[in-house]
Sequence to fold (507 residues):
Amino acid sequence: MSDLRETEGTGIGLRQYLEVVRRRKLIVVVLLALSLGAASALTLATTSMYEAQTTIVVGQDNSLVSPANANAIQPFSATMTELIKSTIVAHDVIDDLHLSMTPEQVLGSISVSFNPESAALNVSVVNHVPEQARAIAASLGANFSRLVKQKLGKGTPATAGNPATPPLTASVWDPAHLIPGKVEPKPTRNLLVAGILGLVLGLLAAFLRDYFDRTLRTVDEIERAFGVPVIGQIPSVKSANRDRSQILWDENGDFAESFRGLRANLQYLAVQWPLRTILVTSPAANQGKTTVCASLATAVAQAGQSVVLIEADLRRPRLADTFGLPRLRPGLTSVLVGHSQLGRATAEIKLPPTRGAKDQDWSITVLPSGPLPPNPSELVGSPRMRKLVDGLADLYDTVILDSPPLLPVADSLALAKLVDGVIVVVRAKHATRDDAHAVRSLADRLGIHLIGVVVTDVPRRDHYYAEYTSELTSDQDARTEVAPAPRAIGGAKAAPKSAAGSRKAAI
Fold:
């Protein structure tokens, strides 16, 4: 069992890493492309270089180092290495080949290596002209051999206390020859190194960007940050339907089904906690809370329950526009200040019949905002607002309030104390951990009952819905099933009221 858990944990970790790479693939691709581009530009700008090599053997008296001086092989080789790269040798090479180079340039193109256990010196010459590289190597070997014979080729005679020292010699063993191909640049090597470096930098930048990114991207992250479950995932509306009232969502497949799922989740939650009055808010603006309010009210009404929708956002109201109601009509503010009766301020919105339920008469009672007041926070937090919400809860199965964002203004804090529960709406890939922590802190400090989170603008799943409903339609052609009436969201009520009856009672 422990091995299984370890395997699952490893898989989850690997999936998380791959998910980070998928989300930040643009960073990885850009840095990889920049690295390869820089390597390509550097390769093209680099002058082609060619290498010639020759081997010089250091010895004594036209032979290898005598056995008596075997321990001096390394000092001999090291000394000869220093002498080869001396200015006098460079001057002789320049004079010999009539080069337009300085001694420093000649010596800069020469490199010497040797094995400490041998007397062979490997000399390399690099130049942008291949024949010139070979000529410099050949001249270097010949002139160095001559200079060694001229200056060190005499030796020392034997004396009374010391034996004779044979003269030092330097002989060209391997004549100068060119190495096939270029030594610089090496396009394959450069691109390979640049690709590896760019990939490493891209992955590092991607993980750092993801680590410091405060955006909540997955359902698990949202649930952990807000401390409540995600009770609804609402797909984005097709662009062709954005200019229509989004409550007429029966044509939108998975969009409609997502609100039926949200309605079902609320029915299950109402078993433990009565949810007759629900406040819908969001941490910030433009999260889709008004669409959620209208569509949730539609889903509740289509379940045969009476529902009233209150536009409690008295700063930037959008609910009346969703239902096509005139903005200058009486509304919530008119009722609260006593300028209008509730029956005149509300509007009953008839819902179009859905497929398979053409004989149903469903409607939503909407109480728009009315004229915008100068003191919205005081108005929604007044005793009259509490009395209005409690009165509507007695007349309707469900009361849904569309409120302003929770964090910018205090209106929702006052409204949250009047309802049974609060739904927080966040747009996918827009909510941050800071928003979630701020909402959670307010809820804990003020005792707000957060029901759950609804995530909007999630990727669509039309192909799953179409596949399932096509099979369901073929089954329904053979038989007709009658579904039992769903339980009301407001679990404390014995039986749901009809929308028409509730409307008359409200008037």
Q: What stands out?
A: Confidence is low (pLDDT under 50) at residues 1-11, 240-244, 462-507. The chain has 19 helices and twelve strands. Residues 64 and 437 are 82 Å apart (CA to CA).
